[in-house]
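Continuing from the previous page...

OK, I double-checked the sequence for tRNA modification GTPase MnmE against my notes and this is the correct one:
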Amino acid sequence: MQITDTIYALSSGALPAGVAVIRISGSATAAVIGRLCGALPKPRTAALRTIRTRNGEILDSGLVIYFPAPASFTGEDCCELQVHGGRAVVHAILDTLAGFERLRHAEAGEFSRRAFQNGKMDLVEVEGLADLISAETEMQRRLAVEQAGGGQSALYQGWSRRLTHARAMIEAELDFADEDDIPGSVSEMIWADIETLQAEIDAHVDRAGLAEIIRDGLKIVIAGAPNAGKSSLLNALAKRDIAIVTEIAGTTRDVLSVDLSLAGFSVKLFDTAGLRETDELVEREGIRRAREAIGHADLILLLSENPDGFAWEEPIGDNVPVIRVATKIDRSEAHWAPGQADLFLSTKTGDGITDLLEKLKAQLPDLAGRTSLAIPSRKRHVDCLKQARTALARSLAVDGLDIQAEQLRLASDALGRITGRVDVENLLDVIFSEFCIGK
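Thanks. Re-ran it with the corrected sequence; updated structure tokens here:
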């Protein structure tokens, strides 16, 4: 990936479309637009132009918007061509661009990578942009907007400034201890703030579980004995036939899943094989996979068609709630007493489905009154924050200003790696590979 090249790509959605956006970025942008469209439009002003080949053949008419450096998304000269979204039109323009010297097709995420390298965005903002593009629920959108807009970066930058001040005070005392205008005791001025900073990072890391639920979804496993109605419930909640349903016990042999949006959150439902002892090889493998899914669940719906079916001996994670659901209550032989289950439902009649959805909503995080979602949303964020927290704890525990200063430097570097200010070159290919070409 040569950042000296001028790059181009289709930046809008799949073709055909009403409008297609072709983006160009690099030092040759102005010259290329001049060859294709004639007079260069005023900066950041949409102008209708006829787009031609280098031989003067008309390709299309469309809007041309020119963004001179550094006031552009990438920080370079940049242009967007808004043309008709037919496949032939777009391919003809891309083929024409390919014929120019110093131009090449952009790689995945290369526009965003140039924005990062030119200081237009930091890594947290870049990752937020990637999440915004892939967001499918309201909460995923809110989390991504907070990151892409710099809200989370501002928090980390504020912490970094406090660390920089603390390190400067220590260095001043070490280097100029004999000067009258240098404070005689650093501890009174900075160590109380370092303790406060450590507590703030601890509280921030504790909210990583919320971000995981927002990004990856609340994992709900439907479990129970064979023929308890697990697959029927999955189909009822998904409102379509996902799983095969029969009266034969052991029909489900594998873990099936479906993604739902509930109260703005992503919810992942897993239908599992009925738990029982069996010698049948395929069913036994399905039961093993069911137990593996149960071990990673955030919530378990334990189903039974009779009051004696709620016996539960499977190991589950700490603090994982289990909701006991009585099924097939429409059958005449069903004799349930109040209190024998947490919920009573029939997928055949629909009774109890609304109550179940309300129960599931109650398990989602309560974000009422929260205006900011500046929370660590990726494992690398959490890892760096934990490194910073550990270094701060060591700085408070050791003696000697020189050793304490080194621990504060390590904490500062850990925070810098989150935003990409320190030693992240090995991460860049991984991060930008998540982007589509043209972004």
